[in-house]
Each structure stands twice: as C-alpha cells, then as structure tokens.
Write a structure and sequence with these properties.
The chain is mainly α. It has helices at about 5-40, 45-70. α1 (about 5-40) runs antiparallel to α2. The two termini are about 35 Å apart. About 10% of the residues are buried.
Length: about 80
C-alpha cells in the first residue's frame, strides 16, 4: 500500500505534468490557428503572431489558475 508521502509526490507530479501539457497545447493551438488563418486569408505571418501571443497568454493564465488552486493556504 502506498504511503501518504508517495501519494502527495504522485499528485504533485501529475499536476506538474498537466501544466506542461496544457501550456504546450495552448501555444501550439494558437500558432496553428494563426497559421491556418494566414494561409486562408493570405495575411502573411500577422495572424500567426497574434494567435501565438494569445496562445502564450492562455497558457500562462492556465498556469496561474492551477498555481492558485494548489498553492498552500495561509491559516493565519
């Protein structure tokens, strides 16, 4: 049977892994969407830049939400 420390270690590893995956997906999706729209609308790299920045912002927003959810609370 797993000890409580092992469970907390696995939980922390899963949270860290999910943050990494969420950030990568948001950034790649923003890049892909912007590139696809650039190809369709013939706008050059401009929409790719805009959606890449939006993807990066979404990635850090997700990071911030997850950090706030799992941050230790002060009971003082």
């Amino acid at each position: 049977m797993a000890s409580m420390g092992d469970r907390e270690s696995w939980r922390a590893a899963m949270v860290a892994g999910s943050i990494g995956i969420e950030m990568a997906v948001a950034i790649v999706f923003g890049w892909w969407l912007g590139s696809s729209l650039d190809d369709w609308l013939l706008t050059g790299p401009w929409l790719m830049y805009v959606f890449l920045v939006l993807g990066i912002a979404a990635a850090f927003r997700g990071l911030w939400r997850t950090a706030k959810k799992h941050w230790p609370k002060d009971d003082a």
